[in-house]
Amino acid sequence: MFGTPIIRFCYKRVAKPIFFRQDPEDTHDRVLGMGKLFSRSRLIRKATEFKLSYQHPMLEQDILGIHFRNPVGLTAGFDKNAELTKIMPAVGFGFMQIGSITGEPCEGNPKPRLWRLPKSQGLVVYYGLKNDGSEAIAERLKNQKFEIPVSTSVAKTNSADTVELNAGINDYAKAFRLLANIGDMTTVNISCPNTHGGEPFADPVRLEVLLTELDKIETSKPTFIKIACDISTDELDALHAVADNHRVNGFILTNLTKQYDQPTIHRDEIEGINKGGVSGKPTYEASNNLISHLYKIAGDRYVIIGVGGIFNANDAYEKIVRGASLVQLATGMIFEGPQVIGEINKGLVELLRRDGFANISEAVGSKHRKL
Ligand SMILES: Cc1cc2nc3c(=O)[nH]c(=O)nc-3n(C[C@H](O)[C@H](O)[C@H](O)COP(=O)(O)O)c2cc1C
Predict the structure, then answer these.
(1) In angstroms, rounded to a whole number, what is the distance separating the alpha carbons of residues 297 and 70?
(2) Is 256 a pocket residue for ligand 1 (Cβ < 6 Å)?
(3) Fold of domain 4-370
(4) Which residues are bridge partners to 125 per DSSP?
């Protein structure tokens, strides 16, 4: 990691003002295009790594038999079609999640479907699971060797055809099966707020049926469930009680929020949008509270991946001391720049030293042990 302050300055003062003046989805597509181009050159990947990546032995962990060089991952939704698997390790991520990938290819919802909320430090997301579908993505990845652990996030195709219970389950199962031997972890996303039929598998009875079917698919990859931001602790208890009887190794807390009336969301920024879920800072507190709750009741039974509103090392550390072994982000990188991943990892080492921990795993859940 070399020259981060200069990159931060260039991103915030030059690139971001240009990006933020353009249509959010077009900008995202352009960044993806650049990422794909950069991926092709070993020299550019090495230079990116030299400039951005920060690694340290204190950040390494072995979790569920998988080695993580650092706890900071790319969250689902940034690389929906698994096109950035070569460049993201160079940016400094410790792992990445691709997707969400649905059984069938999916155009997503009609545009516009992405808005920036600069004052609220979030995005309104109404993509509706746009992606190339499980067959194309499995084909794209089948011979790839990944430099960092990869989690394939699977979800139900956003279409009227998958609203019926069995059709929905078959769709999940198709994506799960085709990706069962690709990457290191699978995430079952039951919390997309923007699709036909809502979030049917956030209901414990339906989740039970879904997980029973997924249990039948052979895989050596650990399975995570991704949970909505706006659920109560009682609802989380009900979901993890279902998970207890199935092949579930962890939870990702959380997805987007639909709580538009919360104080972190500036009303003037969302006026007239009336759809979609919000990412970034508005998800931060709710995600933290659910992490604390699950860690307190389940301890080490589940691996917790904390996501929502991480913009700096303190944000990431808060999720870790509350019980997350790993964290993920997307909005923080869009607002702060790609150097923020290295900055977070470097800051985490400083916070671990400050608090007398020898390794990141010692800090996991430490907030509850002190109380
Ligand atoms: C543009 C965008 C697209 C997203 N798409 C997905 C998705 O396909 N699947 C999913 O599980 N989460 C998706 N999310 C939610 C994120 O993975 C994450 O849970 C949420 O944004 C909170 O993290 P953040 O504040 O770091 O962005 C998306 C988020 C954004 C910003």
Answers:
(1) 26
(2) yes
(3) TIM Barrel (3.20.20)
(4) 114, 277
Q: Are 188 and 172 in contact (CB under 8 A)?
A: yes
**Cβ of 85 less than 6 Å from ligand 1:** no
How many whole angstroms from 181 Cα to the centroid of ligand 1? 24
Distance of CA 77 from the midpoint of ligand 1 (Å): 5
Task: Kindly give the number of the ligand 1 atom that is closest to the alpha carbon of 328.
Answer: 26
The DSSP call for residue 261 is T
The pTM of the whole model exceeds 0.70: yes
Cα(279) to ligand 1 centroid in Å equals 7
Q: How many residues does the chain have?
A: 371
- Tens place of pLDDT for every residue, the chain, 371 residues? 666 889 999 999 999 999 999 999 999 999 999 999 999 999 999 999 999 999 999 999 999 999 999 999 999 999 999 999 999 999 999 999 999 999 999 999 999 999 999 999 999 999 999 999 999 999 999 999 999 999 999 999 999 999 999 999 999 999 999 999 999 999 999 998 888 888 888 899 999 999 999 999 999 999 999 999 999 999 999 999 999 999 999 999 999 999 999 999 999 999 999 899 999 999 999 999 999 999 999 999 999 999 999 999 999 999 999 999 999 999 999 999 999 999 999 999 999 999 999 999 999 999 998 65
Taking the centre of ligand 1 as the mean of its atom positions, its distance from the CA of residue 251, in whole angstroms, is 15
Q: Cα separation of 234 and 305, whole Å?
A: 19
CA torsion angle 139 142 145 146 (round to 10):
60
Query: What is d(CA 104, CA 129) in angstroms, rounded to the nearest whole number?
Result: 11
Rounded distance between C-alpha atoms, residue 278 and residue 285, angstroms: 13
State the amino acid at position 278 in one-letter form.
V
Q: Whose CA is nearest to atom 21 of ligand 1?
A: 279
Residue 98, CA atoms < 13 Å, CB-side half-sphere: 27
Burial 183-205 (b: 16+ CB within 10 A, else e): bbbbbbbbbbbbbbbebbbbbee
